[in-house]
């Protein structure tokens, strides 16, 4: 199990595949670096999206935050956004993926943007359902997540949130296995709880104008929790080199809901960056 060891108690699980060397034909292919959402894991990318990109010659790097699967942390350590961003910067510096394109889902996109603004080199950036402003409604949701998880674990959290986050087709399929009542509280020393408990400290008021690299923004229009059209429009307009895709048949969890479409869009973005590098 590959891990980037941070110290005796802390490490980051990762899987890294270098891009195929075909610079003479198509330009230098980039490496897609996937940054999870708070309750995500590498399998959300490795189930379909990352293998499809590797089949086209791109590199991939997936990893789990401290507190997520196979990424241990010191008991009692505060899993703050600052710590997660610093870990991403360390991972990038240590592994040095070729021509990295950071792909962040939800708050993972925010973490990726912070890392780039703080000096992490990148060829491109992809923001998947990231653009948002934290008003009273989203602040309430953010504060409610650890409360729900503490009461009934991730199972209760998903039963409460999934129909609001995902497209109707995905929700209909997931419904058969939901609402079983088999809920168990999530311990407050669990990594997922620690990540959610500190998420409200994330700084969403970033200098979007400073993200001067090619950026792809993808929004799932059936996301009924975090998507706000006016906020996305306003924040997107501040990105200097951005392109945009709005998906009416998707919600918040794009790698799970529309993996083939996501792999296609990422590959097209990657090919554009490869061509530009000739």
Structure description:
There is one protein chain. By secondary structure, the protein is α/β, with parallel strands linked by helices. The protein is 42% helix and 15% strand. It has eleven helices and eight strands. Strands 1-2-4-3-5-6-7-8 form an eight-stranded mixed sheet, sandwiched between helices. α3 (49-55) packs across α11, α4 packs across α5 (107-117) and α6 (136-165) packs across α8 (191-198).
Count all strands and give the number.
Answer: 8
- Write down the oligomeric state: single chain
How many strands, what sense, and barrel or not for the largest sheet? 8 strands, mixed
Query: Termini separation (Å)?
Result: 36 Å
Task: Write out the strand line-up for the largest beta sheet, numbering strands in chain order.
Answer: 1-2-4-3-5-6-7-8
The whole-angstrom Rg is 18 Å
Helix content: 40-55%
**What's the overall average pLDDT, rounded?**
96
Count helical runs: 11
Shape field: globular
Strand content: 15-25%
Look at the helices and sheets and give the structural class: alpha/beta
Topology order in helix (H) and strand (E) letters: EEHEHHEHEHEHHHEHEHH
Spans of 5+ residues with little confidence (pLDDT < 50)? none
